[in-house]
Structure formats: C-alpha cells, structure tokens
Amino acid sequence: MKQEQSNKLLLIDGHSILNRAFFGLPDLTNAAGQHTNAVYGFLNIMFKIMDTEKPSYLTVAFDEHAPTFRHKMFAEYKGTRKPMADELRQQVPMMKQMLTAMGITVISKEGLEADDLLGTMARLAEDQGMEVTIVSGDRDLLQLATDHTKISIPKTKKTGTEIENYYAADVAERYLVTPTEFIDVKALMGDTADNIPGVPGIGEKTATAIISQYHSIEAAHEAADQLRPPRAAKNIVEFYDQAVMSKELATIEVHADITYDLQAARLTDIFTPEAYALCKEWEFKNLLGRFQIQAPRNVAEDAFSQAEDTQSLTAFAEELAKGQASYIGLYLAWRQRSAKEWEDASLAKDGDGQLSLFTSQKISEDACQEYEIYGIALSDGEKSLWAPMDDISCITQVLEHLIAQGKRLACMNVKEAIKICTPHLQERFLHYENVYDVAVAEYLLQPLKNTYVAEDLASEYLGISVPGYGETFGKRSLAQALEEMPKEFCSYACYEAYICSRVAGMQWESLKEKQMDDLYRDVELPLIFTLADMELEGIVIDAKALEEYGGRLMGRLVELEQKIYDEAGEEFNINSPKQLGLILFEKMGMPGGKKTKTGYSTAADVLENLAPDYPIVADILEYRQLAKLKSTYAEGLSNCIAPDGRIHSSFQQTVTATGRISSTEPNLQNIPIRMELGKLIRKVFHPKDGFVFVDADYSQIELRVLSHMSGDQNLIHAFLQGQDIHRSTASLVFHTAFEDVTELQRRNAKAVNFGIVYGISAFGLSRDLGISKKEAGKYIDDYFLAYPRMKEFLDGLVAEGKEAGEVKTMYGRIRPIPELSSSNFMQRQFGERIAMNSPIQGTAADIIKIAMVHVHDRLQKEGLASRLLLQVHDELLIEAKEEELPVVKKILQEEMEGAAKLVVPLTIDMHTGYTWYDAK
DNA sequence: ATGATCACG
DNA sequence: ACGTACGTGATCATC
C-alpha cells in the first residue's frame, strides 16, 4: 500500500481498542481453537481509520501489564471487576505479534499507563508540527484533544463501525467544557472503575455545570458560597483535598519520561508476508484481500518448469522417481460435471445415437467418463511441474511408474484420485501403502476446520504464504482458470503438489506425536478406498416410481393449499415462516408462542400445540410435511440421478467434528423413515438386477460404547443379559421390577438414555418429555444413582476436556473444545455437553468405519460381486448378488460385530429386501 | 449470505 | 439471570 506523504501521526490505545473489539464481536475461534475476535475487530478498526486518515506514522500503546488496565474495561460490564476474560487475555500477545509482523511500532513502559504514553507522544508530535489522531474507546482521553490532536472513538453498531471524532472544539460543543476542564469534571464526579473518589453528591450534570461556569475546581472552591446546589457547595469545601487528589489522578501525563522516536514509527508497507501468514492462520479471510501478495518467490519460481507434452512429463517423473523423496506430491485437476451438464449432454447426443456413451454399462466399465481431466502436477518437494493432459491413461502411466519405484503419492484428495484413476474393471494400482491424503490427515489433527486447503497447510507447516484458489482465480471454474490464466494456474497446481509433498512427512510426525497414526493408517486411509468405491457404485433409483410419488404429493399439496387459503381468508406463501406467522398469530389471533429473533416461531412443535384448536394448523403441518418430501426428496433425488440411472452421493470424510462421515449431493443419510408416508420414498431405491439389498444396523451402539467406556456394571450387566436397554433403565431408575415397567416409564427412560448420550441437561430433558425442569432433574439424579459409575465417567470427560482442551475417542480421535475455556456460561455449558457426547458419538463412528473397511476388503478379497453402497451412521446397506447372500450376511455379521472388542457384545439387526423400504 | 425449518442417526 | 439437549445437509424465503 502506497503511503502518501503527510504529517499525520496515528496513535492507538491498544488495550482499549482490543477490549472494544472483544466485546463488540461474537466469539470467533480458528480451527486450532484460538480465540480471535478481539484481534480481528482491532484490525478492522485500525484499517478503517487508516483508510480515512492515511497517516504516515503509526504507534500502538499498551499498558505494561494487561491486568492493570482492568478499569474501564469492565466498568461497562455490569460494574463488577472480574479478572480479564481468558479469551481476551490470550489475544493480547497475538495482537502484539500481528502488529510486529506488520512492522508497526508497539510501545509500553513499566509504571506507565497507556494513557500517559499516548498523551506524551501526542504532545511531542504536535510540538514537531504533526497532526495527531488518538484512537481509543475511552472518553477520558478527550482531555488530550487540541486543535491538532483529534480523539477518535469507534462505536460498534449494527451497521458497522462508526467513528466519533473530537478536536478541542468538538469536546467543548458536546460536553460544554474544554478538554482541560474535562479533567476537573471527572475529578468532581469521580470514577469508581478508575479508583477516582470525586466529591460525594456531585454527578455528571452538577460537575459539568460547575466547571463550565468556573472552569476549574480551584476556582469553584474559591467561589463555593455562590455554588448552586447547596449540597455541592458544602461538599466541595468539605472534600476539597479529595477533589484535588482526584484531579491529579484524572490527569493524563503529557510529559512522561519516555524516549519516542517518531521517525521509527514511520509506516512502511504493513501488508507483509508475515502478517499475511498470521491472517491465514487466524482465518481472517476478509482481510486477505488487502494483501497484494502474489505467489511468493521464496519457493524458487524458476524451479517450476512447464511441460507441454507427456514425454517430458514422463522424463521428469522418472527423474523424480530416482530421487530420495519418500513422498511425491500429486495434484490432479478435475471437474465433476453438474447434473445440468449431464442433461444437456444426453439431449445433444440423443439425436446422433451416441446416448449409449452414457449408459450405465459404459460408465461402470470406465468411471473416468465422469471427469474432465485437465492435467497433472508433480513435485518431489523441491521441484514442481504442471503438465496439461486430458488423457487419463497418460496420467496413470506416470503414477504407476512412480509407485513401482516405491514412491508414496501425497495429495489433497485421494478419494477423487482413486475415482479418476481406477476404472472399475481394471486392477487397482493405488493401494493403501502408496498414497497419503494430506487433507484427511489434517482433519484428524484439526477436525474443526471448515476447509482443508493447501495454502493453509503451507502457512502452518512451512511458514510460507500462498494465495488460495479464490484469491487468484475468483469465481472461475477450473476450466476457465486454465483457459484465461494459464500461467497462474500452472503456478497454483505446482504449489499444491509442492505443499503436499513437503507437508506429508511433517504431518505424519504430528500424527505420531498425537498418537493418531494408527487411526489414520488403519482406519481413515483405508476408508478412503471404501468410500471411493461406494461413490463409484452409486445406487439404482426407479426414476418412474419417484416421479409418480412426486405426482401423488403434488395432488394433495394443491388441495391443501386451497384449503389453507380458504381457512385463512387470503392467499399467502405458506412456505414463508414470516407470512405464516403473521397470518396465524396476528390475523387469526392464535395464542402467540413467541420465539426466534426474526418473529414468531412456526416450528412444528409450536404448531402441534395449536393443532387441536385450529383446523388450519393441522393442514399447514400436513402441507409442510408434503412440501418437504416433494422438494427435498422427490425432486431433490430426481435431480441427482446420473445418466447411468443411479445416484452417486458423495461421502465427506473431513466434515464432522466427531468423526462421523457425512453425505452430500444428495444426502442419503437423511432419507425419511419415521413417518410412513416419507418412508415410502425408500421403495424407489433398488438393487441392480440379480442383486438384493442387505441392510444391517448396530443395535444401541452408542449406549454399548458408553457402557464399555464408563465401566458401569449395571449398564454392562443389562447388555450382557441381552435386555431391552430402555426397559432396564426404567426398571433401575423408577425402582420397578423389570416385568412391571410401563410403556410410559420405558419412554421416559429412553429419553433419559438419549440425554445421557447427548450430554445431559435438565432443561433439554424436560423439554423433550414435556415435564418440569425439576422433575427432569430428579430423573437425572435417579439415573446417576442407578448407574453409579456414569457420573464419575462423564465428569471425568469434562475435567479432561478442561484440562487438555480436547477429548478423545477410544481410538484416539481428538475433538478440541474451545468452548470450555469461554467466559460465557452458556458456551461453557455447551462445551461440557460436547465433552460428554463426542467421545461416545466419535467412538461409535470409529467402530463403524472399521467395520466398513473390513466388510469392503473382504468383499474384494473373496472376489464377490456384492458391494457396499451406503453408510447411515450405525447402518450399512449392501447390494448383494443373490447367490452371495449367505456369505454376505456372514461377512456383515462377523465384521460389524467384530469391529471392536468391547466388554459388551456388539450386535446387529439385518434385513433383506428388493427395495430399501423392504430391507429395513 | 443467513436463518428457519425439518429430514436422518 | 441467563437459555440448551449431540451430530449432520437441503430447501426456501429473505436480506
């Protein structure tokens, strides 16, 4: 950023602004669990002022010891003096680190408050003819305002940050006293937060009135007999010494004994690579745009060579193969066609008879049909190379060659590489041993990150800054980027390969340190292959049946819509919660269950309470249900059917905080089952000809995991006896003989069991059961009496979470919990529930992942045609060849139940059928 | 882009 | 005094 020459000095009251930012912004944390909101807010305020002021000099002043600046900070915070919040304290050194990285002068001095530093520097600078701006959230600084020193006070408002500016004249206008007199006003009225006693009985109004007339405490004292409120007059005399002392305390030092080298505070470019790296690390994505940094040159640009043809690529690859590097970074560029493009392609080809290209058979023969390949980047951790290439066989040739040399391929997305490189019927040349997924490994180390991209890894592991895809290419697709910015594209691809190759080894060491190397090697990495095959396989959908289903919904929806309009007396958008709320609660005057920030809540549980009294509500509920089924499932699924007649959902391995996998485009993990009408959707999921579905789901896996991890004998006993677990809980909690447990008792006990797994809270349980919080609390107490080890275990998890900042599953998967160190009670409470839930949910997730890998590998090893298609958290769906049915069932039973050795047995329920509906 | 709602485990 | 059950993703409306 080019600085205009000016004689402007910007001074920032560091702690004050940091504090402002901290309380003005919601708690932000980065993936590493660091709190960042204050630093982020500070930078925003600083940039905003710099943009308008364009100063040539800048200095930030801090108090020497953070706790000594306690004062005004918490004055606005209910007047109580708490220790500085931990989340804020942590950010003080971070802020200084950022400022230092930006080359900004940071000043602090033992025994001096920031106020005194600011005052002194301002005077020094003004004496040298500078224009000074002091930024602070503290109005006490107004006493420093002159004709050449401006006090800027940022205000965080809804619309953004607004800044109030005060020169001496502005102070006089706003407060009716001069900046110097402002001291006397404060001395009279006092300030508890600052330990300034003031004069009793004199508040802001009286103080201002007195000083604006007499201009100083001394003068007011002399004229005490004329002072207006008699009580003030009396007290000014009686407490005169105290008033004088207060004035001394309130006065900011402007001649402090410091050396301040103005020239050293001259601004150069603050957008340095170091600052950029910090912005990346702390995830200040909005600020990155301010940095002009292009691909940094510290990775030796000239090391990148560009190959135009396959031959030179092969030559380079051979060269790489001879090298010593144990990891070869790999970056495959691909673009998955959208459903729309498939549609267009099919239509276009329809006329000239090439539709067969997109039939199911063709695709299963050569899954690469799905991709457009643009090229490949390779790196050995020193040199990198990008080779444009659209023929997958050239790529596989090179990779096979590298693998034959014993190299390991490290890349950002092994699953896609597998899908691209491994046509179904060919023997797979990518194996567990010769690939390494940098993103999946990073997910284990930092499971809370939103994205796993090379540039973040570069700054974390290598300390270098690389622009992200969007920074260079904006919203361009890969194809557009390659077309319009070939040079940058080359650089980008090369960097990605370079980073993967460099990071892999370091990351592996981190995994070992954190004792997650086994988890990675034995579970997550093999799982990549399992998921790739599941995605390639897809699941057959009966498109016609799906359309009929949608049609049926449509018919009823039209009826309901009209009925609702009639009942409401007008037409409106039933899908709009806002409009619906107005109709129900204002126009029709229903008793307002008020909720949500934006207005009335119209959520199902609210409407259900109204349904018995208002027929329209029942219709709306039915309408909602049908609309959901139609848009999300009937239409949503239909849009995802590939030309092969199947749906190829994506399974995400780096998304959830607990270690579960998730499913997208479409989500096949939330297909309706609870309501019969929704469950019917499952009839459109078919096995292919000659195959049959086998669906196996774990029975109570989370409670079994809990019984194992807690070691509670009562829970273990129930599982060992094969008892109905909710009935058993009811029996123990309600002191009822097992056989005499009522349905209601069982239902309540079931809710309690859920509560335990979720991280119990009386409120949550009471809401779920529709009972009072007190009753719910009693249930919980009784539960812990019945299961003595359970409280100990759950408290232990919370303690562990607080101690280590993270909790672990049985297999060592970690879940950081920054919420536990929050000063916000609710946040902390949330953290405690996470600490209780994550090890349980996560261990169950680990176990089914192990089962998936084992099932997948056995199907493969035993040469079966049956395939694993879906995972739904505690359930696996297999498409089994009919002849293989017995062996498939055996495999499922053995591998799912044998996936973990717990003190209680793991059991599954299994069903077969010719639709997913029938297999449940 | 965000919030509300609702589908699943 | 506060205001909550844990984990996801898709859709629609609204900003």
From TrEMBL:
NCBIfam families to which the protein is assigned, alphabetical: pola, PRK05755.1
Catalytic reaction(s) noted: DNA(n) + a 2'-deoxyribonucleoside 5'-triphosphate = DNA(n+1) + diphosphate
Q: SMART domains attached here?
A: 53EXOc (SM00475), HhH2 (SM00279), POLAc (SM00482)
Q: Where is the DNA-directed DNA polymerase family A palm domain?
A: 678-884
Enzyme Commission number(s) from the entry: 2.7.7.7
Q: Which domain of life is it from?
A: Bacteria
Indicate the enzyme's highest-level EC class: transferase
Protein name from the UniProt record? DNA polymerase I
What the entry lists under PANTHER family is as follows: DNA POLYMERASE I, DNA POLYMERASE NU
Task: Please give the function described in this protein's UniProt entry.
Answer: In addition to polymerase activity, this DNA polymerase exhibits 5'-3' exonuclease activity.
Q: Which UniProt keywords apply?
A: DNA damage, DNA repair, DNA replication, DNA-binding, DNA-directed DNA polymerase, Exonuclease, Hydrolase, Nuclease, Nucleotidyltransferase, Transferase
Annotated family: Belongs to the DNA polymerase type-A family.
- Source organism: Roseburia lenta
According to the entry, every stretch annotated as the 5'-3' exonuclease domain falls at 7-268
Check the record and name the InterPro entries matching this protein. Answer: 5-3_exonucl_a-hlix_arch_N, 5-3_exonuclease, 5-3_exonuclease_C_sf, DNA-dir_DNA_pol_A_CS, DNA-dir_DNA_pol_A_palm_dom, DNA/RNA_pol_sf, DNA_polI_H3TH, DNA_polymerase_1
Instruction: Describe its assembly.
Output: Single-chain monomer with multiple functions.
Gene Ontology molecular function terms on file: DNA-directed DNA polymerase activity
